[in-house]
């Protein structure tokens, strides 16, 4: 079974050089996201959003595994700009370079 790890395939995006400044071109990617407001440390809405995000991400992961015969890791969530934005990258069945 093929393992599609975007962090390894697109290493230049995830592990940039600490010594050299560079401009990178980020290819189009798909994410699942939940947007909201509130304090991530105390908000029940935030906890429910994280649970929904992971439930959706793993449902998609197992569907891709069953239908395409490939697995990919579900990446961790991110909080952006102090807002309660939860996002996890989701594979679309395409490899870097546009192949299937």
Please tell me about this protein's structure.
- The protein has 3 helices and 4 strands; from the N terminus they run βααβαββ.
- With 100 residues, the chain is α+β, with helices and mostly antiparallel strands.
Keywords:
single chain, 100 residues, alpha+beta, Multidrug-efflux Transporter 1 Regulator Bmrr, Chain A, two-stranded parallel sheet, two-stranded antiparallel sheet, 18% strand, disordered C terminus
Oligomeric state of shown chains: single chain
Encode the helix/strand succession as letters. Answer: EHHEHEE
**Judging from the principal axes of the Cα atoms, what is the shape?**
flat
Mean pLDDT across residues: 75
Radius of gyration, CA atoms, in whole angstroms: 16 Å
Q: What is the spatial order of strands in the main beta sheet?
A: 1-3
Distance between the termini: 14 Å
Helix/sheet category: alpha+beta
Indicate the CATH topology.
Answer: Multidrug-efflux Transporter 1 Regulator Bmrr, Chain A
Looking at the overall shape, the CATH architecture is Alpha-Beta Barrel
Can you count the beta strands?
Answer: 4
- Main sheet characteristics: 2 strands, parallel
- Tell me the β content: 15-25%
- The CATH homologous superfamily is termed Regulatory factor, effector binding domain
Number of domains: 1
CATH class: Alpha Beta
List low-pLDDT spans: 91-100
SS field, number of helical segments = 3
């Amino acid at each position: 079974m093929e393992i599609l790890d975007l962090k390894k395939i697109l290493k230049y995006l995830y592990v940039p050089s600490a010594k050299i400044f560079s401009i990178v071109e980020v290819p189009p990617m798909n994410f699942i996201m939940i947007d909201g407001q509130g304090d991530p440390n105390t908000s029940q809405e935030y906890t429910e959003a994280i649970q929904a995000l992971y439930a959706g991400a793993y449902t998609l992961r197992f569907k891709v595994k069953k239908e395409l015969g490939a697995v990919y890791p579900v990446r961790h969530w991110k909080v952006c700009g102090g807002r309660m934005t939860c996002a996890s990258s989701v594979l679309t069945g395409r490899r870097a370079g546009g192949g299937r």
